[in-house]
Structures are given as C-alpha cells and as structure tokens.
Amino acid sequence: MEHPINILERYWRFTAFRxxxxxIINAAIDGExxxxxxxxxGGKSLCFQIPALAKNGICIVISPLISLMKxxxxxxxxxxxxxxxxxxxxxxxxxxxxxxxxxxxxxxxxYLSPERLQQELVQDRIKQMNVxxxxxxxxxxxxxxxSDFRPAYKNISLLRQIQPSVNVIALTASAKPEVVEDIIKExxxxxxKIFKQxxxxxxxxxxxxxxxxxxxxxxxILKKYTSSSIIYVRNRKLTxxxxxxxxxxxxxxxxxxxxxxxxxxDTNMAAWSQNQKQVMVATNAFGMGIDxxxxxxxxxxxxxxxxxxxxxxxxxxxxNGEKAFAVILKNNSDAILVKNQFLNVLPTVDYxxxxxxxxxxxxxxxxxxxxYETFDFEFTTFCQTYNFSSILCYNALLLLDRNSIITLSKxxxxxxxxxxxxxxxxxxxxxxxxxxxxxxxxxxxxxxxGIFDHVTKIDxxxxxxxxxxxxxxxxxxxxxxxxxEIITLNLAKTDAQITFIEPREDEKTINKIASTIExxxxxxxxxxxxxxxxxxxxxxxxxxxxxxYFGERDINPCGICSxxxxxxxxTASQDIHTTKKRIIQLLEKGDKSSRxxxxxxxxxxxxxxxxxxxxxxxxxxxxxxxxxxxLSHI
Length: 634
What we know:
- By secondary structure, the protein is α/β, with parallel strands linked by helices.
- The chain contains 26 helices and 19 strands.
- It has five domains: 193 residues, P-loop containing nucleotide triphosphate hydrolases (Rossmann fold); 137 residues, P-loop containing nucleotide triphosphate hydrolases (Rossmann fold, 3-Layer(aba) Sandwich), CATH 3.40.50; 88 residues, Arc Repressor Mutant, subunit A (Orthogonal Bundle), CATH 1.10.10; 64 residues, no CATH class; 69 residues, Arc Repressor Mutant, subunit A (Orthogonal Bundle).
C-alpha cells in the first residue's frame, strides 16, 4: 500500500498534511468508522480521497450538493483519477451503463446523492462493487437538528447492509454536540474514531458594526484593506447594485449569483480568483469549494439566516493564517428584514400540499407516476400560472427538495427549437451574402438531420462548441435568421430543472413528511433567533459566542473582535467570562440555586443573572424542576 504522504505529493503537490488530516486518513485506511468535524477550509475532502486512493477498490461518496459533486469529480479527473457523479436527469439505460463502468472500469470514486440509494438498480450494482470506503459528506444532513436536514440521508445505513465489512467516514464543517451524537447513531458506528478540530480561528476578527449608512462603511473598509474580499448580500439585484457602487468609488469589483450563465460565472470567478478584481459581491450561491487563501475580509451586508451558514461563509477569510476580518453590518431594520425573509415565509403543511399538487398538474404527472422524470422548469411562469407568492412557493419547493420528494436543480439555460422554412438551395444563396452566419448554420445542419422537415430541439452548448463561438453569438444569429424568415424559432428560457423522486400520490406523499416540515420550521426559527442574539450581544466576545454555540467550552476571549477591542465593553466582557467559568466549576460539583451561587461566588446578584441568562441561552446549563441550575448533558 502506498504511503499517504506520497499520494498527497503526487496528486496535490503538497509536502505536509494539515492538522489532524494524517491521523484521520490513517484511521480510515485501518478500517475504523471515523467521524470528522473540521471547520470550513480544514481540508475534509482529502480525508476520504487519500484513503480511497491508497486501497484497492472504489469509494462511494454520498453528498447532497450536486454542484460540489461535479466540482470534485472534475478536479479528480483533471488529476488523472477516474471519478464519476450520478445526478438527476440520467435515464435508466445511462444509469445502468455508468454503474457497470464503476464495477469494471477501474473507477476510484462514485459520487451519489442520498436519493439515488433508494433505487434498487443502484443498490444491486453497489453489492457487486469492490468498495473500499464509504464517505458521507455534509453529514449534519442526517440529523433532524442539523442545518439542511435531508430525510434521505437516513437511507445511508442501507450501505452498511449492502457492504457490511466496509468502514464509513462521516464529515461535516458544522455540527452542534447533539448533531454529532445523531450522526454517529444514525450511521451505526461501532467504537468510532472521533476527530474534532476546534472552530477557533485565532487570526480571524469577528466584527459587528451598527451602521445607518452601510455603503459608506463598505467603502471605508475596502479602501483600508485593499486585499481580496467577499461581500455577501441577500439577493441578485444587490450584487449588481453594490458592485456598481464600488466601481464608482474606484474599487474594482465583480458579482456572482445563481441567475448568471455558466460563462458569466466562470469569467467573474476567474477575475476575482486571479486578483484582477478586489471584491466579489455575491449571494450565498457563491463559495462552495472556494479555497482562496488571501481573502482579507468577508463582509455580510445583510444578516445571514443562521450561525451555521454565517460561520461557513466567514470561514472563507484568512486561510493563509494572516489576520483577517469577518464583518457584519447591521442597522435597526435588519431584525425585521431577516424575520420577513426567513420566518414569515415558512410554508405550512397545507401550503406545501397545494404547491406539490399544482406542480404535478403543471407537468401533467398522472397519479402513481412521475418517478425520476425530469423537466425543465421556469419558476416565474409557474408562480404566475397558479398565482403563488414567489418566496413562499420557492420555500415550499426547497422543503420538497430537502425531503426527497423532488430534486430542484438551479440552472439557467435556453431551450431552443427551430425549423428551416426555406429550401436548401435558397438557404445557400442567402449564406453567400451572410458569410458571418456560415459556420453556425452549417454546424446546425450537420448535427440535426430533418431540420428542414420538422421542428427540432437543438443543444446550444454543443453548437457553440462545434462552431467555436459563444452561446450568445449563436442566439444572435438565430434571432437574425428568424427576422429574415429563414427559420421559425422558439427560444424559451428556464432557470431550473425539476426531477420527481417519488411517484405522485398527492395528500399521501406530503402527509408522511408533515411532522418533518413542522420540525424544520421550528429549527429555522431557532436559527434565526440565535443569529439575532449574536449580533445584539455586545457584552461577550464574538468568538466566544460562536464557539459556545457549537458546544466548545472554557474559551478565552479572542482579544481582536468588535467586543474585545471596544474599551467600554472590554472590562465587562472579561468579568462575565470569569464569572461564567466559576459557575461551571461550581455546578460540576452539583446542582445549585442562584442564592447559593451568590453566596459561594461572592458576586452581585444582578451580575450573576446576566451570566446565568447567557449560559441558559447557549444550553450550557439548564433549570431543574426544583428551580436550581445544573450543567446540561448533551
């Protein structure tokens, strides 16, 4: 067996592992069930990729993120490592062929969504594979208390029955203590090796600023720190507005959101990655798999929806170890806005039923049918057809996606059908006077037989590649051909794809996930409230607040956040931290009333109440039925 460090050097050109990586890799190679909690940027993917490369056979990787699966497969293929991802939109015949390739084609990695494990064909083929490791990425999705809970993740235990001798490695960047316990239980780990890296980032200053004029503060920060930066905003419109504003202030900027074409995304991403642009203004569609080491500031112009998402997005800053800043800009309207955006638009079970039924009707899915059928989906048209609120409807679709009723893939593309309505001879006469259309028209004719006889669906991407022109150039040409009455053209735009995972059963389909929908709504309320508590708490070190949320204890103030560097708050913060440690030490000896604590600790009752409230909010302590306090056992 090749040594892991040799694999690291050959494929990744690194000469040393990051903290914990080597121990994790060795545990996985030794056949141990392994749990890995590494913060964003900790190098989780190598923790399963290197063990899989060190051993004979193929690694099954379960991931809920199609974009991340595709990115990792592309990166592995570019290194000469055979990997594939089976996502939505694949026919049964294609699926059969791809799975056979995994058995006989010397593939090292097979990436699957958890929903795919429900298919008997997939299960049967995995039984025939020489599986050397099962990797569960984004493992917090298996817990109903984890962010982005996906019930299909509970089916992963099927792999343990199909391949009982193969060990499992579960990886996540964000999991509270109760979520960690859930993951280990659901994956049926026996004597697992558990690796938890502290979420502490000593070089990262967490700053929260109250600003009436957020634009002015943006300009001030970015002119003071001229290195690479990310600004996260709430919607697509703001990405353009803020990028335009920064350009007017001589700060180079670009933007990124889910509605851009792939070419636009790649172009803007490259400009920022290569430091041609200082700032990337983006929605939360940007960031997965980004490992740019020199990002100096991550600024949240709008409030994130949860501590989990904030910590992940903020974690993209300062990966080179130099001092960096994660900034939240807030004002008096932010609490109302975040509640309107994330709480007041939570769909009820009845509303989800209505959206699902209309979705099935929209695509003419018959009762009992539709399983694994895929459709191009124009969201705005769907909402207009049934008079749905776009925000409520979108959240209902997300719930259906997370609960494995459908798969919603966001992708902007053009669906084009056309037919030539003139004779072949007339067309070539036309091309003699329109030489610039020649290559595109002839490419279409060679690719699509019968296009003179009937309306034909064409693939814009394939035509642009064959003609060696941009997709926009192809569209411009087709529109001119239509104007000149050479072709009939139907140019429809879609912004998503819908794949139905389950056959249509209307009420029955939704009733079985009703309790999960209600629980997820409660979880969202808890997450938003925790985020609001974080931005309003100016008495406890920001780093301490974040790490406490993730279950870490006995943390010293960072000394560099907006609380620690505020001279008015600094003394109070230190006193609260000291009192907190003394309370925990006291309760380790047994339950105590507040009066007993005041007497024992010799502190003011008003000061004690402040600290007890913080400890209760962060679930470090709890109340007993007799109104005493005890340490929480999570």
